[in-house]
Design a protein that fits this description.
The complex is a heterotrimer of chains A (446), B (325) and C (318). With 446 residues, chain A is α/β, with parallel strands linked by helices. Chain A has two domains: 208 residues, D-Maltodextrin-Binding Protein, domain 2 (3-Layer(aba) Sandwich), CATH 3.40.190.10; 201 residues, D-Maltodextrin-Binding Protein, domain 2 (3-Layer(aba) Sandwich), CATH 3.40.190.10. Chain A has 18 helices and 15 strands. A five-stranded mixed beta sheet of chain A has the order 2-1-3-14-6. In chain A, strand 1, helix 2 and strand 2 form a beta-alpha-beta unit. Chain A is globular and about 65 Å long. Chain B has 325 residues and is mainly α. Chain B has a single domain, classed as MetI-like fold. Helices cover 59% and strands 1% of the residues of chain B. A two-stranded antiparallel sheet of chain B has the order 1-2. In chain B, a hairpin with a 2-residue loop joins strand 1 and strand 2. In chain B, helix 12 packs antiparallel against helix 13. With 318 residues, chain C is mainly α. Chain C folds into two domains: 48 residues, no CATH class; 243 residues, MetI-like fold (Orthogonal Bundle), CATH 1.10.3720. In chain C, 70% of the residues lie in helices and 0% in strands. Chain C contains 14 helices and no strands. In chain C, helix 4 runs antiparallel to helix 11. Chain C starts with 10 loop residues before the first helix and ends in an 8-residue tail after the last helix. The chains are: A alpha/beta (446), B mainly alpha (325), C mainly alpha (318). Chains in contact: A-B, A-C, B-C. The interface between B and C is large, with 121 and 121 residues.
């Protein structure tokens, strides 16, 4: 019968075509767009004016074609690129990740880059630099510096007859009483949070307030089950439990219209909570009439402390244009660039009748210059907040770079969540976290 | 078919059920005779509709609100703000980024059409092979087909990427007028896909063998049997395959993350992620959810249209299956 | 057709007949039809699968040099408490999700079959959730399932039920996910079941009615057996998918603000992803994946064996 022959012929033709196509692909001229004049960036697509002003300056400084596909840094994307030998020339990512990638040899040390381009490391804030330093070598150039202050809703305090001193975080018993006074639980639902300790996210802050660093400075020794850390977690959880318990607490918090005009401050839904500084800018835009106060977070010895995070630039191993990458990073974070950016932003904001609360750049020199030269008063409340943000920056601490930062973070976050859910005591949870973190870091260091 | 095929001596009942979900004849609606019952069913369905449709309605409503009101829990926006949809294209607040949403929609469209068309044809061919013929290793090979569905894709992601890289499809440039980076998103469908092979095989098995017997006696070859008899009878299933794969391709994000480099080559989900990175709540971000939701609605509409159109053909296909044999 | 009788031929003859099968025209034709899949399998599927299997015996991390570690990954896996947690979560989810999915889909399809042509509009509506991008689902999950203020609990309160804390209570996270992922996204299965229901020959129902069978008996003894192949298909597909649940759970629980989710929402597939791309342990992730593969293969095999008893073969056999 010809039937099967016909189908066989048809399919063979298809297969032959396919094979031909693949052969053609392999033989075809593989156009390389990688000349000495190209810089491939991963993790920094087109953004807002703060990003674009600096990008324009840096592009000019580099003088090459700059490719910036959009989207933030994605581990999968990066790993796939590295695996196929197509690593980007420079990457932009969360500072906390730099240590791990550095420990695994994915990033190059920037020692030569810093020397040859004469990058002045002293202009960057020390905690930010520490975050990107592993085994004594710098692997990243820091950008942005998110610090945390306590945002207070004056209305809520007035209504409950509570003074600001009640929110002093150096006095834990008094803070607990204040929180209970400010909180409102009605009909089995939380209708107002007194003081939100922001755990699990800010657990390192509470531990430090109690006098312990959850990770040693060299990034190799976790101290998660130090008795002071355990006490800190216990206390923070007790704050939540005193205000309705985790379920109700979180359910209420999830309803906050964080970026809207009826946000939790405008609607008096919370007394106070620690928050990153960029939120002041959001508030000034969405609800400028709120009466707020910014307080510094204090440790038990009444010293201001503050936990900082941010982004960084790094050069992957296998980068085809490390010189241009280095020029780019320097230009993006230099004082003059930041200043030009801030001036531009202040102007844009003014023309649109929108508030401007300065920038927190990670470059200490730039911060001061920006505040002096570009900040104009909004109203007494926000002015105080902006000034406070600037003041607390020098009291920041960082989580050190470690070879297993993701696993380390998972260990303590999971522990905090388990305690919040009532599944474990703080001691048991942190003991477990300590074991997991130690094992992960030891396995990762080489 | 071979009368005394030695293959039939092979083992006892196969481990895979052959029965089909539909017989080719006698497909019918069975509306209830009594109007009251019908009304009750209608009411029940209407209630379910509300449950199913509410999130989407919420998304549409929120996409028409100004930023400050997105989460205000009103179904009808207090202030109508349709310019959000324009903002998707031209950028909003401080962002200078101009999303090429039109290009993304176009990319998603033809990639999805290619993916769906190729997988339908190729899977039908393979499914017919498994359904109709008897041959050695048939069960083993079908088990392999099923097996490909059982390994989580996460760990084959990078090895697959490396293969495409060796074939030069991860760099810049075009091949046969189509952008190279987009081939990994649809080209594997040229070779069938386990899910649809399984599905179509079930349908093909429902076709009575006498139909094929008759055509063999008329002198037809295998290809004719497939093309003239099997495929038309399984048309509803093939349309279902097309629609399902269209949706799968339209909503695919993971592959686009690692294969697509260029903004101009993005598909809609990849573009959505960019918008989310830009406008979502993050350090300094504004949480412009209204733009994200507008983009989400824009992203979903074409699929809804395709599905609605597709299933009308599906219904027709079933309705015309009156003939027997 | 000639069947094999009790006097089975001896092993030599059987083997010879089996090999002879390869020369039959039918076999060649079959392989011709199968060739697209076979080509793709060899080039694109088998390669990566074998690669990942080999990698499971190494400490592959892409960026560091790879070393052979033998069965160390599998041994670690055996003792890893997160593996136990995530497997348990995944199993509980699947065991809850698959029956719920099948029952709801079947119920909706049955109702749709009863309303005639209007079903088209409904069918689109029921399929809508599967087309909603993950972004929107992630946002909406927290809104709808909020324990104190979400509309789900407010709706339940209307009928006097005090709803639990779906998003935070360890006992209710998975049922909540089942509702959102499996029940809400029944659209595809409704489509399949509806097609199957419409294929049940009317005369069977008429015969049953004449015998005096009640509605329930007609459903149990006519409908169910006739659509059992479709049920089988949906069960297998959803079991395999359920055991690999990732997308929606990841969006709802593992987003930027809570990158590590919670103990009760850690699904096995998410754990694999974390190991691969957050902790750079692709070797370990590969070992985890192959364990899941084995589990799925065993469960599917069991389902197939069970199906031989319950799935009714219609049309042609074998």
């Amino acid at each position: 019968m010809q039937g099967w022959r016909k189908s066989l012929a048809a399919v063979s033709a298809l297969v032959a075509l396919g094979v031909l196509a693949f052969a053609a692909t392999l033989a075809s001229a593989h156009t390389t767009a990688k000349s000495a004049g190209t810089l491939n960036i991963m993790g920094f697509g087109t953004g807002d004016d703060v990003a674009e002003t600096r990008a324009a300056i840096a592009t000019k400084a580099v003088g090459a074609t700059v490719n910036r596909p959009s989207g933030s840094f994605d581990d999968q994307q990066f790993l796939a690129a590295v695996a196929s030998g197509n690593a980007p020339d420079v990457v932009y990512l969360d500072r906390q990740k730099v240590g791990t990638y550095a420990a695994k040899g994915a990033f190059q040390p920037l020692t030569n880059c810093i020397k040859s381009q004469k990058i002045n490391l002293k202009q960057y804030r020390i905690p930010a630099l520490n975050e990107v330093t592993y085994k004594g070598k710098v692997y990243g150039i820091p950008e942005f510096y998110d610090v945390r202050t306590i945002l207070v809703d004056n209305n809520v305090l007035d209504q409950a007859g509570v003074k600001l001193s009640g929110l002093d975080t150096s006095n834990w018993p008094r803070l607990l009483t204040t929180a209970k006074k400010l909180a409102k639980v009605q009909n089995g639902k939380v209708t107002r949070i007194g003081f939100d300790p922001k755990i699990p996210e800010f657990f390192p802050l509470w531990a430090k307030a109690n006098g312990v660093d959850i990770l040693s400075k060299d990034g190799l020794q976790p101290h998660l089950n130090d008795p002071r850390a355990i006490a800190a977690l216990q206390y923070a959880v007790s704050l939540v439990n005193a205000q309705g318990g985790w379920d109700k607490f979180k359910a209420f918090r999830d309803t906050w219209d964080f970026f809207g005009s009826n946000n939790e401050i405008a609607a008096d839904q919370v007394g106070a909570f620690p928050m990153e500084q960029w939120y002041y800018n959001v508030l000034a835009g969405s609800s400028p009439k709120v009466k707020i106060t910014a307080l510094q977070f204090r440790n038990k010895k009444r010293q201001p402390i503050n936990y900082e995070t941010g982004s960084a630039w790094a050069i992957p191993k296998g980068s085809k244009n490390p010189t241009a990458a280095c020029t780019w990073m320097k230009a993006m974070t230099s004082t003059s660039t930041w200043l030009a950016t801030a001036k531009n932003r202040a102007q844009i904001r003014k023309s649109k009748n929108q508030p401007y609360t300065g920038l927190s750049t990670g470059n200490a020199v730039a911060d001061q210059a920006i505040y002096k030269q570009t900040y104009t008063s909004i109203n007494p409340f926000f002015d105080q907040a902006v000034k406070k943000v600037l003041d607390v920056q020098r009291f920041s601490f960082n989580i050190p770079a470690s070879p297993a930062s993701a696993e380390f973070q998972k260990a303590w976050m999971d522990a905090a969540n388990r305690v919040l859910a009532g599944q474990q005591t703080a001691k048991a949870a942190l003991n477990q976290a300590q074991k997991e973190a130690t094992r992960a870091i030891n396995a990762a260091r080489k | 078919m071979s009368q005394a095929s030695p293959v039939q001596a092979q083992g006892p009942a196969q481990p895979i059920p052959p029965a089909p979900p539909v017989a080719p004849q006698e497909r019918r609606w069975r509306p209830s005779a009594r109007p009251l019952t019908r009304a009750l069913y209608f009411a029940f369905l209407a209630f379910c509709t509300v449950l199913f449709v509410y999130p989407f309605v919420w998304a549409v409503s929120a996409s028409l609100k100004p930023r400050e009101e997105v989460f205000d829990n009103r179904l009808i926006p207090k202030h109508f703000h349709p310019s959000n949809y324009l903002d998707v294209f031209r950028g909003v607040s401080d962002t200078i980024y101009k999303a090429q949403f039109g290009t993304w929609l176009w990319n998603s469209l033809w990639i999805a059409v290619l993916a769906a068309a190729t997988v339908t044809i190729s899977s039908a061919l393979v499914a017919f092979g498994f359904a109709y013929f008897r041959f050695p290793l048939r069960n083993f090979l079908f088990a392999c087909v099923l097996g490909t569905m059982m390994l989580p894709g996460v760990v084959t992601l990078v090895p697959t990427y490396l293969i495409w890289n060796k074939l030069h499809f991860t760099g810049p440039g075009t091949f046969l007028f189509l952008s190279r980076n987009q081939y990994p998103l649809w080209a594997p469908n040229l070779f069938g896909s386990a899910f649809y092979i399984f599905l179509l095989r079930q349908f093909f098995l429902g076709i009575p063998r006498d139909l094929f017997e008759a055509s063999r006696m008329d002198g037809d070859n295998y290809w004719t049997m497939f093309w003239r008899i099997a495929a038309p009878l399984a048309k509803p299933a093939m349309i279902v395959t097309f629609v399902f794969e269209f949706k799968a391709s339209w909503t695919e994000l993971q592959k686009t993350l690692i294969y697509l480099r260029d903004d101009g080559a993005f598909t809609v989900p990849r573009g959505l992620k960019t918008l989310l990175d830009l406008y979502g709540p993050s350090a300094g971000g504004h949480g412009d959810y209204q733009v994200i939701l507008a983009a989400t609605v824009l992203a979903t509409l074409p699929m809804i249209i395709v599905f609605f159109l597709g299933q009308r053909f599906f219904v027709e296909g079933i309705a015309t299956q009156g003939r027997k044999g | 057709m000639a069947t094999v009788t009790a006097t089975a031929p001896g092993p030599h003859l059987r083997v010879r007949r089996w090999f002879a099968g390869f020369t039959s025209r039918e076999t060649w034709a079959a392989f011709a039809f199968l060739s697209p899949w076979m080509f793709g399998f060899v080039v694109f599927t088998a390669g990566p699968m074998i690669a990942s299997f080999i990698l499971s015996f190494t400490d592959y991390s892409i960026i560091q040099t790879t070393h052979n570690v033998g069965t160390a990954n599998y041994r670690t896996l055996y003792h890893d408490p997160d593996v136990r947690t995530s497997l348990r979560n995944t199993f509980i989810f699947t065991v809850l999700a698959v029956p719920a999915h099948v029952i709801v889909a079947l119920g909706l399809a049955a109702a749709l079959a009863r309303v005639g042509r209007a079903a088209s509009a409904f069918r689109t509506i029921f399929y809508l959730p599967t087309m909603t991008p993950a972004v929107a689902i992630g946002i909406l999950y927290l809104l709808i399932f909020n324990g104190s203020y979400g509309i789900l609990n407010r709706g339940l309160a209307l009928v006097g039920i005090s709803g639990p804390f779906w998003t935070t209570s360890p006992h209710w996270v998975k049922p909540g996910l089942v509702l959102m992922i499996s029940v809400w996204a029944v659209g595809a299965s409704v489509v399949i079941f509806l097609a199957a229901l419409m294929g049940v020959p009317q005369h069977l129902y008429e015969a049953a009615e004449m015998d005096g069978a009640s509605r329930w008996l007609r459903f149990r003894d006519v409908t169910l057996p006739m659509i059992s192949p479709a049920i089988f298909f949906v069960v297998i597909i959803n079991t395999i998918a359920g055991l690999q649940t990732f997308d929606q759970v990841y969006t709802a629980f593992f987003n930027a603000s809570t990158p590590n989710g919670t103990d009760s929402s850690l699904m096995y597939a998410i754990y694999i992803f974390q190991q691969a791309f957050r902790f750079f342990k692709l070797g370990y992730a590969s070992a985890l994946s192959w364990v899941l593969f084995a589990i799925i293969a065993v469960i599917t095999a069991i389902q197939i064996v069970v199906s031989r008893r319950y799935v009714y073969y219609e049309g042609q056999s074998k």
